[in-house]
């Protein structure tokens, strides 16, 4: 029997997550967690219902899943609410670990499309404090992490924001998220772009669907190429299907993602890396 528990991590109606817990026997120990971050090009009309089938499937396969909702562009998100919510939502697991026997040393993220961007971005949060932001943007600096991601499975993630803006993906969704093009707000792009946090010291599987017409494969390929010289190079994984096969629990594309989540959770607990001031 899958248990479901909904918790808020802030006062806004979009600041919540739902924890899906697998059935387990007494004495089986603490559970690793997959943070499910939905896509929708960061726009308010797409919500956590996109991640619910994935969270349920993960729980049915023995993984605790935290289906995370967050403010998006159009309902209080964008710059900088979306970014603050993702970090605060992940950190909420620190409060839930005791009551639900969660292993905070094994927290990974599974993010689709814009959620893939946010998942990989959050994995590099320790680097964000060193970025030089304009005075009006400095309140968005990442606070000290209570929960750090031990790995990420990005599902056709938008992993190169500047490149996505050049391609004008989804009617300039990146400019809508950040408030303009890179030429006008370069500091925001440095802060928000996963490329700027490379190299990472956690594993990233950049999974991309072969027939993806919504987020071109170059988004994942460019990120992987840029990170190859790092201590833990990201890996590109190509799967069959289109953009939405990745969030279809019955599709081969999604099943491969679930396998990668399980692989990350089986890995030894990572040693904490040095913080970057």
From TrEMBL:
Protein name from the UniProt record: BD-FAE-like domain-containing protein
PANTHER family noted in UniProt: AB HYDROLASE SUPERFAMILY PROTEIN C4A8.06C, KYNURENINE FORMAMIDASE
Domain BD-FAE-like intervals: 20-222
Keywords linked to the UniProt accession: Hydrolase
Keyword Hydrolase set for record: yes
InterPro entries: AB_hydrolase_fold, BD-FAE-like_dom, GDXG_lipolytic_enzyme
Alphabetical list of Pfam families matching this protein: BD-FAE
Keyword Hydrolase: yes
Highest taxon listed in the record's lineage: Bacteria
GO molecular function, one term: hydrolase activity
